[in-house]
Design goal:
With 206 residues, this protein is α/β, with parallel strands linked by helices. The protein has a single domain, classed as Rossmann fold. The chain is built from eight helices and six strands. It has a six-stranded mixed β-sheet with strand order 3-2-4-1-5-6. Strand 2 (53-56), helix 3 and strand 3 form a beta-alpha-beta unit.
Length: 206
C-alpha cells in the first residue's frame, strides 16, 4: 500500500511580495505565485504522482494554490476539504505591517523573538507552539487516517501550519523547526509506513 502525503506551501502572495506580515489576512497570489503553483503541479505529475484527496486552509491563497496544482495534474474536481485548522499562524497585531516597519516600531530584537522563538506569541497572535497545538490534532484526527488508508493525499497550506506537520513527521526539536524554511510552491513528498513513521522523504526542487 502506498501511503503518500505531499505538503505544498502556497505560491507567493501579494503580501509576501510586499514583505508584510500576513497571518489570517487573505491576499491573493501574485502572478509569480500562480506560476509556482502550476509548476508544483507539473513537477508532481512528472513524478507520476496522483492524489485521491486534498486538504487546504480557509484562506484563499492556499485554496487557489491547491486548485492550480490539481488543475495542472489533470485532477480538477478532486475532493478537497477546507478547514481553518490549517490556516497560517495568526500574527495578531503584526498582521498587515511591513516587517521593516514592525522592526522600527517594536525594535529588531523584539520582532526577531516574535518571529523566531517557538513559544513567544506576538501581541494578540499565536506562537509556533500555539500553531502546532491547533494544526496537529486536525492532522492526527482527519488527515493521517486518510493517508494510512492508502488515500494519496495533498495538503496545500502555509509556511507555519506546514512547519507544524514537518516538525512531527521529521521529529524535529523546537529549535530545529524554527530554522526550517519552506519555499513557496515547493512540494515535499513523504511516504509513510503503517505506523505513520516516514520511510521516504523527497523535496521536489522548483
Amino acid at each position: 500500500m502506498d501511503r503518500l502525503l505531499v505538503l505544498v506551501r502556497h505560491g507567493q502572495s501579494e503580501w509576501n511580495l510586499k514583505n508584510l506580515f500576513t497571518g489570517w489576512r487573505d491576499p491573493d497570489l501574485t502572478e509569480q505565485g500562480v506560476t509556482e503553483a502550476r509548476r508544483a503541479g507539473a513537477l508532481l505529475a512528472g513524478e507520476g504522482i496522483s492524489f485521491d484527496l486534498a486538504y487546504t486552509s480557509a484562506l484563499g491563497r492556499a485554496q487557489r494554490t491547491c486548485k492550480l496544482v490539481l488543475e495542472e495534474m489533470g485532477l480538477s474536481g478532486l475532493k478537497t476539504i477546507e478547514d481553518q485548522a490549517l490556516n497560517e499562524r495568526d500574527y495578531g497585531d503584526l498582521s498587515g505591517l511591513n516587517k521593516d516597519d514592525a522592526r522600527a516600531k517594536f525594535g529588531e530584537e523584539q520582532v526577531h523573538v516574535w518571529r523566531r522563538s517557538y513559544d513567544v506569541p506576538p501581541p494578540g497572535g499565536e506562537s509556533l507552539r500555539d500553531t502546532v497545538a491547533r494544526v496537529l490534532p486536525y492532522f492526527v484526527q482527519e488527515i493521517l487516517p486518510s493517508v494510512l488508508r492508502g488515500e494519496k493525499t495533498l495538503v496545500a497550506a502555509h509556511g507555519n501550519s506546514l512547519r507544524a506537520l514537518v516538525m512531527v513527521l521529521e521529529k524535529l526539536s523546537p529549535a530545529g523547526i524554527m530554522k526550517r524554511e519552506l519555499a513557496t510552491g515547493a512540494p515535499i513528498v513523504y511516504r509513510l509506513g503503517p505506523d505513520a513513521t516516514v520511510i521516504e522523504k523527497r523535496d521536489l526542487i522548483v
